[in-house]
Amino acid sequence: MSVLPDLHLHYVQACQNLSQPENPFIARVLQEADKNDEISTKGITLKLAGNNHLVPVPRVTDDDLGVLVSVLGQAAYITGLDLAYNVLTDAGAETMATFLQENSTLRYLNLMFNDIGTSGAELIAGALHSNQTLVHLRMTGNKIGNQGGMFFASMLKINSTLEKLDLGDCDLGLQCLIAMAIALTQNKSLKAINLNRPLLSSQEEETTVHIARMLRNNSSLVELHLGKHGMKNFGVERLCEALYENSSLRYLDLSCNNITCDGVKFLGELLKKNQTLQILDLNANRIEDVGAMYLCEALTTWNRGLQALSIVSNNITGKGLLALSQAIQCNIRLSHIYIWGNKFDRNTCMAFSELLQTGRLGPGCTDVAPYEVDGELFLAELSHGLGKHRYWAPRCHTVAPGAANASLEIVPVSEY
């Protein structure tokens, strides 16, 4: 390990050399990094996210990034870079692409919700053809479009280092998702991918069919997000058919789709035989009481693999929720359940209050908490859930291990 340079001093000098004004936010973060005693042994992530501050900070620009990477070029102990919610454009993506081609220590890069477009995506994806260190990349919310996603699909056929790729909310299209599925039949290194909210005009679920075909052959993917795909019961059936032959997927996100009780029937039958799946997110579908019963049947008697289940906002009444509470009593493996947004009655409130009071459910393992008014028991919402830190996370790490609130908290993929 090389002698630790003074990051802040080097930043000030680089700003002078490049005639670039200092960004006080970057300067402060680098000063904090210089004071970190563990920097040389553990490596650190520079947290330069433009949101998440009590006092507004100047967002990182393309010019700021140019100065920053000139400083980080010699800082081998900087292993992560969080640049989310800034104002980086394709010009900044070009700077970052050059840095990725030259850098051999960065393992985590978060570029979510900047202003990177198709050409920027091409540059970053191209840099990952040769980069052999980056493990986790977040491009969430950059409008790279279908063509930008195609560049990442091509990259996945070549790159053998990347483990986690987040392309949610990136306006991906039909051709891109099909290309992704084809690439993942060959890629053996990627463990987690987020493909949430593509822009699909077709109602025929071609993308789901291709993804299901990929799952039959892929033995490395652990986490898959397919939220807001317009998926219906036909698509769920195709996925379930594939997952009978898949023994690696542990986290399946089907939130915000058009799944009804008929689709959940296929999931219930799958859970009777599949003991690999550990996290299932059915948030914001419409499974209703009948769908809840299908899940209860599998979880009560057959399944001992699932650890976390989200059925938030699924039009489930007290009958289905009460049955789920009884399934939890029978299934000690199921440790996290999220139920807010359904139709609670008195028996539901009493049942989940008892689960919490007896310790069967931990307070951080569900999204409700009991309270009493005039002798009547009610449930209040807690800010917990499988997607709690998908778009926002505190600067200090406050998520308890195993809380299932952040990506793969139950099933770690890597250090990041």
Automatic annotation (TrEMBL):
UniProt keyword Ribonucleoprotein, yes or no: no
Coiled coil (residue ranges): none
Domain of life: Eukaryota
Keyword ATP-binding on entry: no
Gene3D superfamilies tied to this protein: Ribonuclease Inhibitor
Alphabetical list of Pfam families matching this protein: LRR_6
Keywords: Repeat
Protein name: LRC34 protein
